[in-house]
């Protein structure tokens, strides 16, 4: 992937690339710490169709969503020969009972038979997280299990 | 009435009115600068109310306002950004200087204001308002646009040019001869180069010297350093404002961000008082006779800025709509045009009409600049559509709501 970096004096740094469909998409990392997400219009790649200011939390959450999809797809690919096994992603919301708690407290594997194989956090992957990893708002848990198990894991993460 | 009480009442009333004006400007999404200028005109000599009590304070506050404006401008940039910008965009910068200095200088000569008046008015029409331009770019969601770096590079070049131009102007206004002028220019160039080199190599040390975790200590450090450097620069005839600008460039990194945050309210207050002080010194009855010239200058210099932007954006490989967007973003003139005119008027080396012309000109440009930036895109689009076949539909591969 060829990412262009352009310094915007007084504002920050723009990082963008052109997608296969011909759009320019990228972020401007503002000096004050916010991120501006933008995507160009299709008929004039110089201008932006949307330019969306994101806080640090929002930017890392979006990063998880984008990266998590890719991770989940490759996991699903790996499990496709095992019937009955599915992959799903769970995000930790602010009101989740396990926000700021170690993951082991939820006892997901014991109670639902589901394995948490990775956590996406601030655009980075934490593979095979140990039970003492503390969960935070915006974390994306990548889980593997049966459909039924995944449903009950979702309920555990939501309701405790 | 007790003179102190009178001064306090006048000052309070003026600042309160400025608050109302700034709120009005924010409500309709405009720069407050033209409103402050009109406020100053209304309060000053020949205006509706004549405020004599606060004259002295307004004058000193205005000077501090200029120092803070330039200090904060310097804080925006790091030395590396300036040097890189200069290297990449000096051609566009020179074209900008030639195209936009000429109309102001020409009209000053036509009006019989002599070489000094020409150099002042040239500066007034040359310098775009980086404050207004940056706000327009952010407000219109153009931060990610491809032409934005081109616009910013031109603004950077202009701001650096100010660092050379202001000392020259100060020397000329002080009436020093050719040799004295050369000496000042030499000092200015040496100081600018020295500061850039020091800032590139030892910027963190300058930052360390003023930095403090305690925001009160930090504020006093930065403000004290700025006034001190400005005063010394002024004593060396290099212009107080340039001293502050160079200090701002030398401070970098996290220290610069904190300084910006802490100084912002002070800058807003003193800069507002600066515009008022300028308006106070301008007789509003002088404006109608020069209004025609101001309009002519406005049209001319809007066109020359447009040309500058179009040329620079074309060189950077930007398509036609982007070229026009770049040109229009540069049209606004504001704070620095008034800084230049203010320097000239306080020195008394130029006719009073110049203040009136500069005021009328900046009023026009500060209002039309953001409007032009907003409406150039639909206008260009409509124009291109009517002269071309309809554009094909978007390729199916792309995802679109």
* Strand fraction of chain A: 25-35%
Mean pLDDT of chain B: 85
Number of domains of chain A: 2
Helix count, DSSP H or I runs of 4 or more residues of chain B: 15
The top-level CATH class of chain B is Mainly Alpha
Record field, number of beta strands of chain A: 9
The quaternary structure here is heterodimer
Record the strand order, biggest sheet of chain A.
1-2-3-4-5
Rounded to the nearest angstrom, the radius of gyration of chain B is: 22 Å
CATH topology group of chain B: Na+/H+ antiporter like fold
Note the main sheet of chain B: none
The coarse silhouette of chain B is globular
Q: Give helix and strand order of chain A, one letter per element, not per position.
A: EEEEEHEHEEEH
Number of strands of chain B: 0
Domain RCK C-terminal (chain A): 75-159
Protein name (chain A): Potassium transporter TrkA
Pfam families (chain A): KhtT_N, TrkA_C
GO molecular function (chain A): monoatomic cation transmembrane transporter activity
Question: Could you give a short description of this structure?
Answer:
Chain A has three helices and nine strands.
Keywords:
heterodimer; A: 160 residues; alpha+beta; Alpha-Beta Plaits; 2 domains; 5-stranded antiparallel sheet; 4-stranded antiparallel sheet; 26% helix; B: 401 residues; mainly alpha; Na+/H+ antiporter like fold; 80% helix; globular
């Amino acid at each position: 992937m060829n990412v262009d970096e352009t310094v915007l004096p007084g504002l920050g740094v723009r990082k963008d690339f052109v997608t296969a469909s011909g759009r320019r998409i990228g972020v401007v990392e503002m000096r004050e710490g916010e991120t501006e997400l933008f995507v160009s219009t299709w008929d004039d790649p110089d201008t932006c169709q949307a330019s969306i200011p994101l806080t640090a939390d929002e930017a890392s959450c979006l990063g998880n969503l984008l990266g998590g999809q890719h991770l989940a797809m490759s996991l699903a690919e790996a499990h496709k020969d095992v019937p009955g096994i599915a992959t799903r992603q769970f995000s930790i919301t602010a009101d989740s009972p396990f926000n700021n708690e170690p993951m082991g407290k939820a006892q997901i594997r014991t109670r639902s038979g589901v394995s948490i194989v990775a956590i996406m956090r601030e655009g980075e992957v934490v593979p095979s997280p140990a039970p003492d990893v503390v969960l935070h708002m915006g974390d994306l848990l990548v889980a593997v299990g049966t459909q039924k198990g995944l449903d009950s894991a979702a309920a555990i993460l939501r309701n405790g | 009435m007790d003179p102190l009480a009178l001064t306090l009442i006048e000052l309070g009333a003026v600042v309160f009115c400025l608050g109302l004006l700034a709120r009005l400007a924010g409500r309709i999404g405009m720069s407050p600068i033209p409103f402050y200028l009109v406020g100053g005109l209304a309060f000053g000599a020949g205006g509706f109310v004549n405020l004599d009590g606060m004259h002295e304070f307004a004058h000193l506050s205005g000077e501090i306002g200029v120092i803070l404006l330039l200090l904060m401008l310097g804080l925006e940039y790091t030395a590396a950004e300036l040097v890189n910008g200069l290297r990449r965009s000096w051609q566009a910068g020179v074209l900008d200087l030639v195209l936009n200095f000429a109309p102001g200088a020409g009209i000053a000569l036509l009006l019989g204001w002599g070489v000094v008046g020409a150099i002042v008015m040239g500066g007034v029409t040359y310098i775009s308002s980086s404050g207004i331009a940056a706000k327009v770019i952010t407000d219109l969601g153009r931060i990610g646009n491809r032409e934005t770096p081109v616009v910013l590079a031109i603004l950077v070049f202009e701001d650096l040019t100010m660092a050379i131009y202001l000392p020259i102007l100060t020397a000329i206004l002080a009436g020093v001869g050719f040799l004295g002028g050369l000496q000042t220019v030499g000092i200015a160039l040496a100081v600018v180069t020295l500061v850039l080199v020091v800032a590139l190599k030892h910027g963190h040390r300058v930052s360390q010297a003023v930095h403090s975790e305690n925001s009160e200590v930090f504020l006093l450090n930065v403000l004290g350093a700025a006034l001190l450097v400005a005063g010394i620069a002024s004593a060396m005839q290099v212009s107080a404002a340039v001293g502050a600008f160079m200090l701002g460039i030398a401070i970098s990194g996290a220290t610069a961000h904190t300084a910006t945050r802490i100084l912002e309210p002070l800058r807003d207050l003193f800069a507002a008082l600066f515009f008022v002080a300028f308006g106070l010194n301008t007789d509003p009855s002088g404006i109608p006779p020069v209004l025609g010239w101001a309009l002519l200058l406005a049209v001319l210099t809007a066109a020359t800025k447009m040309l500058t932007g179009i040329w620079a954006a074309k060189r950077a490989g930007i398509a036609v709509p982007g070229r026009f967007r770049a040109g229009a973003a540069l049209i606004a003139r504001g704070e620095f045009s008034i800084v230049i005119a203010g320097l000239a008027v306080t020195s008394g080396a130029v006719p009073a009409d110049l203040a009136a012309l500069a005021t009328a000109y900046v009023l026009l440009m500060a209002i039309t600049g953001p409007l032009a930036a907003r409406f150039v895109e639909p206008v260009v689009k409509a124009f291109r559509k009517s002269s071309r076949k309809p554009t094909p539909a978007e390729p199916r591969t792309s995802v679109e709501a």
